[in-house]
Amino acid sequence: MADYDFDVLVIGAGPGGYVAAIRAAQLGLKTGCVESRETLGGTCLNVGCIPSKAMLHASELYEEAASGKLGKLGIKAQVELDLDTMHGQRKDAVKGLTGGIEFLFKKNKIEWLKGHAAFTGKDTVQVGDRTVRAKNIVIATGSSVTPLPGVTIDQKVVVDSTGALELAKVPGHMVVIGGGVIGLELGSVWKRLGAKVTVVEFLDQILPGMDGEVRKEANKIFKKQGIEFKLATKVTGVTVSGDKATLTVEPAAGGAAETIEADAVLVSIGRKPNTDGLALDKAGLATNQRGQVEIDHDFRTSVPGIWAIGDVVPGPMLAHKAEDEGIAVAENIAGQTGIVNHDVIPSVVYTMPEIAGVGLTEEQAKERGEVKVGKFPMLANSRAKTNHEPDGFVKVVADAKTDRVLGVWIIASVAGTMIAQAAQAMEFGATSEDIAYTCHAHPTHSEALKEAAMAVTGKPIHI
Known about the structure:
The protein is an alpha/beta fold. Helices cover 31% and strands 24% of the residues. It has helices at 15-26, 42-47, 49-66, 83-107, 161-164, 181-192, 212-224, 319-333, 362-368, 382-386, 415-427, 432-436, 447-456, and strands at residues 6-11, 31-35, 111-114, 117-119, 124-127, 130-139, 143-145, 158-159, 173-177, 196-200, 228-230, 233-241, 244-251, 258-262, 264-267, 271-273, 306-308, 347-349, 354-359, 371-377, 393-399, 405-412. A hairpin with a 4-residue loop joins strand 18 and strand 19.
């Protein structure tokens, strides 16, 4: 041990990195974690998942009151927007959670090395003016916003997801480039606070990778909410003059160009792995064509002693996937058996209603064999009806022969919470019958999952 400064050195303190560091320390390994931000928690806690949820929740409550929805429930209110306070509660949430991780680092005796890490060899990294040697190094550097060629993000008029959380006033017209999760979430925040929102998506449907029916239904719901969509459309240029932007767009298949004026442009076309500046070559590593670090089933890279997890490796760029990999990689380093079932990783879009899925889409499942599908509309769910939340449905995709659940897709106000049950059922290898014959509390949104499971064999009660 004398030769090494650490048993485990984690590069990056996002959801994957900080969890890996804590688990490694819990398992008795001397652990260090390199992080260049002023606070721990990575993109997710500082400028991603957490602050966006603070704005989503606040904007939902504002819209419910301002739109008169509360009036229908017998609650009369005069409402005004205090955007500064709304931003303040977002910052408070972030501060509390990032401070919590710092506390956990101290509690678990993890050393935080502040700065950027660059490999100088297979087991050494340079952090500032310090060279550190570690028996095991975990690359958990996460991802950053994919730039749109020819478009400069100034974080004033043309913003990325970080800038979109910080806007000092509600834009008159916001154009969102990209109809994926981040664009729809942040677009919906500003729509609810009073902006006109136009989403420009290169593909012919929003939410790539999700179940086809879910994508269509979501599009319908968002249109009803007043979001405008330009699908199968590409952005060919963005110019900024003063505090306004002009976008040039044209049909993806070719055709006449048109211009759109905007007060704010959100570029959200995806994320790319963070490997720049790591000097991977000095450790004997290279990235694949997508800029990712390749790993085996145990999260080992091609170089012994170097491991990688999270957004920097193949797979969905999701905080909870990184967290699970963080636990698993630490357990593997400690000689235990750390496993992540990558077939059962839920994904959630935190719009209103929420959209969630786990496992295979109906399209993917059909490519693999014969399936049975059960659907149940939220309109027929007593709790959703009582809460005036009629939009959406639950869909269960099962193998036609074995009845094993292959995928579950949900649009509902609490879809993100409901999907956990589906993921757990699939982790246990459940059949649709298993879910159908599990007693669900009444009245809850979750009963819709039970009914959809019953519908797989053609016998839901309430439709």
